[in-house]
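Protein in question kept in full:
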Amino acid sequence: MVLNTVGIVLVAIQDSKLQILLQRHRDGCWGLPEQKITSESSLDDTALNLLEKAASKVSYFRQLYTLGKADRGKGQRTVTTFYICLTPKENILEQDNEKNKWFTVSKDVIEQTGSIRESLLSLTDGDHVISYRIEDKACENYIRKDSALLENSAGCLYEDHIKMINMAMDELQLHVISSGLIFNLLPAEFTLKQVQNVYEIISGTKKDTPNFRRDILKMLVPTGKTVKTYNREAELYSFNPLLQYLKGDL
């Protein structure tokens, strides 16, 4: 008998940090929120039901990956389809911190030599840090990904949830601008400074402001509105969702 569940990787920017929602599982470890699929519910409906408990609205929502190894699950094989979900911080609902908690997440490259790249992926709730070493190894025409919990970590993640968090971080850090993902972490109208701040939080790198603004403006639509910031007026923009259909080298 196979148990089918749905899990979510819910990401938001809060307090100028990239954060992910984790849930305390039955063995005491923190992991991604999961829910059993009923005979009356679809995968999407189950994921949306999970999200309703955490956010009033989600801007981005799609299937990320399905985990289903034969030995997965304790006592019963479990197949879980995970969704990556993004939302601006104003949509976040208050959580019971005993069961659900927002962790700050980061992934930084430590060393890259030849066909191997090593990174440090860390999650912290302010008092405790859970850290994994991530190895990306080029094998012919694909990349093999492995992870190992560091000895000085305060606990560990539930089962194989590190794989999903790592995949979500790669999705954000590698495609946050090119795919327009970044705009799902911002309000509907935003300043150029806000876009750059969010990008630098996700990537962990600083960008040259004039060059960043020149490139990002190709993806935006002026709203004609302004907002006062630091005693000056800043223009407000919105993302152009038809960007992928436009001609030209973007």
Notes: The chain has a mean pLDDT of 91. The helical segments are 43-52, 161-175, 192-203, 209-216.
